[in-house]
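RECORD TYPE: protein structure
NAME: Putative pyrophosphorylase ModD
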Amino acid sequence: MATAASRAELERLLEDDVPYGDLTTEALGIGGAIGVMQFAARAPMVLALAEDVAAIIALAGCDVELFAASGAVLEQGAPILQARGPAAGLLRSWKVAQTLIEIWSGVASDTRAIVDAARAVAPHIPVACTRKNVPGTKRFAVAAIKAGGAVMHRLGLSETVLVFPEHRVFLGDLPLFQAVERLRRAAPEKKLVIEVKTADAALAAAVAGFDVIQAEKFSPAEIAALVKRMASMAYTRARPLIAAAGGVNAANAAAYAEAGADVLVTSSPYLAKPRDVQVEIASADDGTRARLILRKDAAVPAST
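PREDICTED:
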């Protein structure tokens, strides 16, 4: 069972919420009682982080059966998991697990909505999500984006070349084609991407030799006009890809796809409303037993 986070990272999440023991459970003296905890979708959603949540509950000392994998489309009432174990473990892991699924399933669900809208028009168009997730949550953000059917735009500054206007202010009067030459010497195996805010800037970047033109806050009509103008140009290399970025969401993704964008770039899913997960915890004193597939002593992968 692959998790997005390492065992140590999942253990830290538990420690953050329960640093010195569960005062309420301990004071009531119920920690050793055996119970059953069930998670279910309260409304339709795309599931994310299910494997990490199952691992967290297992780390708390419980046995877990996972009914659906990350990326699954769940209807209202669909079961997600069932756990059995001591009350101390169930109650310790409950809120951390629930919150992770709710937040990141919201991201996955909104991602899937954008992907579905765009691909209804252009079946193979990629939707790429930016790195503008909450700092420190990248492993979970990437997992949720993938569960929603999108890809990551860039994981960080170390892996891609993307020239922003904020970079160009330090280049002075350096011609754009010379900037391209400098970049290709320093990073010859990388695609060169540039963000532009006007059609003229996009055309200049295409002539200079950039591989991808990231059109920031262009309307669908402006993207269509840019596609038309760039199609009429002659290139020494392949025509640059046009990435529509800035304000792309489920409501306009189809329009951008129809306009001819090659890629849709968005940060919208990170602002998604969490999806509600219903949690029920009951005593198992009646002898209720669940079929369990993840044992509490199972190894949690170091990372994925």
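COMMENT: The first helix runs from residue 7 to 17.
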